[in-house]
Design goal:
Layout: E1 6-7, E2 10-11, H1 15-33, H2 36-39, E3 40-49, E4 54-66, E5 70-72, H3 74-83, H4 87-102, E6 110-115, H5 117-120, H6 123-135, E7 143-148, H7 156-169, E8 172-178, H8 184-190, E9 195-198, H9 200-205, H10 210-226, E10 229-232, H11 238-247, E11 251-252, H12 266-275
Parallel strand pairs: 4-6, 6-7, 7-8, 8-9, 9-10, 10-11
Antiparallel strand pairs: 1-2, 3-4, 3-11, 4-5
The structure holds ligand C2E and magnesium ion (3 copies).
GO molecular function, one term: cyclic-guanylate-specific phosphodiesterase activity
Domain EAL: 24-274
Protein name: Putative signaling protein
């Protein structure tokens, strides 16, 4: 809540802050008015096992084409939906769409879906998630639920219970954007995650900052020792891929392989994989 401080009649209201606040308010109003069933859609980004060259999963990434505002990216509208108490509705709509899409995929391909920590703390939404997953025509063991680390400042006991429930259902549960939160290590210590996703900031800095390289190396060793899976996010270049291979980072996701693609392109994408198992730039755009 922006308070106006006046000094000698001149407003010292932070204009950048105010612009951001106005933008957020505009987005929140548009979200409340939106026909979300129609305006929300999903893109799917491949997650690749580089030891075989095969795509093992697709991560569902929300897209919102607002009638009033045009295309809005999830980094913006998810945060605003969470703060405005709208995220639960979005989650249910998006999960329904993602599951419907994944039902069309080959049976060995997994679906990764981002949950908000707010979802885990709402018993009502948890029930709806469980209902959607168990009624979908897809083995829950093919579903991976990702929870962003920076959002985990919630009731840790409630989050733990929710993760247990999702695992009991058969899903795996990932700690997303690992390394960006306040207490990454205590999160994997206190919560029963089955996977971590190393944040792309470490990959981006790998060439210029030797510490990043060593951190990725240590995290790979840590996850191996703990017996949990590890995905490396945001791999963009050949150089990065070469370094990661040396480190034994086998499960990767990033523009180097493919940007998020439309559901209609998944068949073509998977077909192209069989022919050319290393890169699929043809389908990027
Ligand atoms: P995330 O879950 O960490 O998803 C990865 C983000 O990194 C995606 O951004 C993806 O497009 C982007 N990305 C993938 N590869 C690369 C790369 O090589 N380089 C770069 N620079 N970026 C790459 P996107 O789609 O804009 O989503 C942003 C965030 O919004 C997601 O981060 C996730 O936290 C959240 N989000 C997206 N969809 C949903 C959703 O359905 N529900 C919830 N709760 N959150 C979502
Ligand atoms: Mg994610
Ligand atoms: Mg991430
Ligand atoms: Mg993220």
């Amino acid at each position: 809540h922006g308070k106006r401080h006046r000094r000698g009649g001149v407003s010292v209201f932070d204009t950048n802050h105010s612009t951001q606040m106005q933008q957020d308010a505009t987005i929140e109003i548009a979200l409340r008015k939106a026909d979300l069933e129609r305006e929300l859609s999903i893109m799917f980004q491949p997650i690749v096992d580089v030891t075989t060259g095969e795509t093992v999963a697709f991560e569902a990434l929300a897209r919102w084409k607002s009638t009033h505002l045009g295309e809005v990216m999830p980094d913006q509208f998810i945060r605003i939906a969470e703060r405005g108490g709208l995220i639960n509705r979005l989650t249910v709509i998006l999960l329904g769409k993602a599951l419907a899409a994944a039902e069309e995929w080959p049976e060995d391909i997994h679906l990764s879906f981002n949950l908000s920590a707010h979802d885990l703390c709402s018993p009502d939404v948890m029930l709806q998630i469980i209902k959607l997953v168990s009624e979908a025509n897809i083995d829950p063991r093919r579903i991976d639920l990702e929870i962003t680390e920076t959002a985990l400042l919630h009731d840790i006991n409630q989050v733990r219970e929710a993760i247990r429930m999702l695992k009991f259902l058969g899903c795996s549960v990932s700690l997303d954007d690992f390394g960006t939160g306040y207490s990454s290590l205590s999160h994997i210590h206190a919560l029963p995650f089955t996977k971590i996703k190393i944040d792309r900031s470490f990959v981006q800095a790998m060439n210029t900052n030797p510490a990043s390289y060593k951190i990725i190396k240590s995290l790979l060793a840590l996850s191996r020792d703990m017996g949990i899976d590890c995905v490396i996010e945001g791999v963009e270049t050949e150089d990065e891929m070469r370094l990661l291979r040396q480190l034994g980072g086998n499960i990767v996701q990033g523009y180097y392989f493919s940007a998020p693609i439309h559901q209609d392109m998944i068949g073509a994408y998977l077909g192209a994989c069989g022919l050319e198992p290393v890169r699929h730039h043809v389908l990027m755009s």
